[in-house]
Amino acid sequence: MMMKKTLLLCAALLSLESASFGQHKNIYNKNWIDFNKNGKKDVFEDPSQEIEKRIADLISQMTMEEKTCQMATLYGYGRVLKDEMPTLEWKTKVWKDGIANIDEALNSLAYNKKAQTAYSYPFSKHADAINTLQKWFIEETRMGIPVDFTNEGIHGLCHDRATPLPAPINIGSTWNKAMVRQAGDIVGREAKALGYTNVYAPILDPARDQRWGRVVECYGENPFHIAELGKQMVLGIQGNGVAATLKHFAVYSVPKGGRDGDARTDPHVALRELHQIHLYPFRRVVQEAAPMGVMSSYNDYDGVPITGSHYFLTELLREKYGFTGYIVSDSEAVEYLYSKHHVADDYKGAIKQVVEAGLDVRTNFTMPEQYIMPLRELIKEGKVSMKTIDERVSHVLRVKFRLGLFDQPYVQNTKGSDQLVHTAKDESFSAQLSRESLVLLKNDQNLLPLDPKKLKNILVTGPLAAEVNYTTSRYGPSNNPVTSVVDGIKKYMGSNAQVNYVKGCDIIDPNWPESEIIPSPLSAAEQAGIEEAVAQARLADVIIAVVGEDEKRVGESLTRTGLNLPGRQLQLLMALHATGKPVVMVMVNGQPLTINWENRYLPAILEAWFPGPQSGKIIAETLFGDYNPGGKLPITFPKSVGQLEYNFPFKPASQAGQPSSGNNGYGKTSVNGALYPFGYGLSYTTFEYSNLQVKQATQKAGSDIAVSVEVKNTGKVKGDDVVQLYLKDLVSSVTTYDSDLRGFERLTLLPGEQKTVKFVLHPDDLSILDKDMNWKVEPGKFRVMIGQSSEDIKLKQEFEIIP
């Protein structure tokens, strides 16, 4: 039966090629393509012409039907598109007049069996397939406008067996700008080789509520840190001639109460905080890296849906920030104006709002005609002007011209793709990126690194020890081999020690998450699982407990109401600790957890987040000392969800404790302080800071400020340190943050080695939004603070800005 279907498909494709493809072979000329098939070189077909002239010429020749087709996404095979390859029926589809972009074309999307395809691998086969799809649009539509092939790429390209990178929260924990640039370069190179021309990355949302499920997909909570890393990711991707599309513009990451899922709305953010926290990374990255794409989010701000907001999409993004690419909606963002936000009577009214607000391309998991046909009606009824349509289409075409799709629309060397995607060098880089993301949270009496020569019996336990699903997500590469933590430890130790594995407990209990508010006794099976782990623990020299969350417990639509270890994991740890044997806790999780008991009683804690498929290997190397962890937390760990919001930066005294005496009373009614502050992370070695210098203690506004500091490795092993520069505006016209991050550098030092770390503070780093909401450097004193976290400040020095 399968053979018969394959033969029928081949016959259909041969028929298609002979019936239609062949008649347009003469459109390919030396150095130009006759896209509109009129036998002459039009201005838009001439590579020597300026892009703006080419856009104007092309738009002048397009029909209303062709223009509206450049304003919608067609989701790829297995998502919306039902055909892997073009068919004769495509001549009857709305995309006979073209399409803006095709998303996730033939990528064998993880966890979606409908999207599995033989065209995703080998990589050269996919490049050939994309060329076939592109060829249809160039040869079989009247104007021949090429397609922008888009794909996700927040931790490696979302494609079958592409290079897998750790989760974005891991990438944020590296604080390594050079490596993030290289990660972007890998994503862009692989996209280009596979035929993708636009990557949906990076996510620039500040993760300000630790309950929010998508914390795992963010770089962290601090806007400066996010901007610095996001800029490097964009430069890496676009350096390969591929567009980067920023996500999610804007105010997306703080829905009320951190609730995702059916909520996805109503952020409670003040206007100044909107600009200083949530828009800051987008402004910086747009202005400094010139991304070609931005994705509009489906939430509102102060009652106005972002995707229907002229202020956000046009006044801010284009007119103030200078964005020149095209804006694509997040899935269902347009529909939400009608179905969720109720600011339009019907879907057609929602379309009118978003087009006039500035949206260029609509995306949703439905056929594109559901958007295109009502849009055409609005145009015919005179409710949306052709001037507006031409402007939206010009944004899409500008990106396509910038990508070179009108000059070289095909993957040139498809065979070469097999040597360009997921190379041995890429695999090595992926492992190093995961290593650098590991954060050592606790290490009493230097329990870590473990000495393998002194260990004869090791117990590996915990529900995440043998789990592997966290290494693959909806937005990353799939089908790569994975090494679990227990397998990594077993392989590392070989025959040198007995490594036993007992699961101990499941990630959750049957009543979770209700069990977080209504405790229930352990079942007989749960009790037996813990007792089995305890029995093995008594025989062990050391216990390695791998606990946390998996991809079903944190991610999109998976916001939590509690942040303790889920299920029976704490009971397991308590029972293991009671044996008197040393317990090393390895955390695999996607968001900060309130591990208060664990931090107080367990001697060593290693935060691994969601590392890539080599997780077991890199965790084993770190536990046994082949690698010295140097990552730092990009997000605050609270002690309790009752403290939220609790993050960095913060306004003066907004996260303070309680008075012990005074006229305003005193009390002891709350748990105060961070469990682990922003920027925190330990090492197997020690570092010493000295000789902080701020050049020219008095400067005029508009000047750069040079800062330098000496850093020395005073320990016995090589290690990485992240030198962090914080800035405090001592007196300002409006209340601003107690201090904020304004520089960081990761460096590697040998024992006894010393290096000078240099920073430059630019006027933008000193700017605040004044009373009139204008960015301004105000005269006055500033304090530079150098430290190893936002709370562990080693050196301070002041300078003054004079009028």
Automatic annotation (TrEMBL):
It holds the Pfam family Fn3-like. GO terms for biological process: arabinan catabolic process; xylan catabolic process. It comes from the Bacteria. Keywords: Hydrolase, Signal. The keyword Hydrolase applies. One of its GO terms (molecular function) is alpha-L-arabinofuranosidase activity. Residues 1-22 form the signal peptide. Residues 721-790 form the Fibronectin type III-like domain. Belongs to the glycosyl hydrolase 3 family. This is Beta-glucosidase. It comes from Pedobacter caeni.
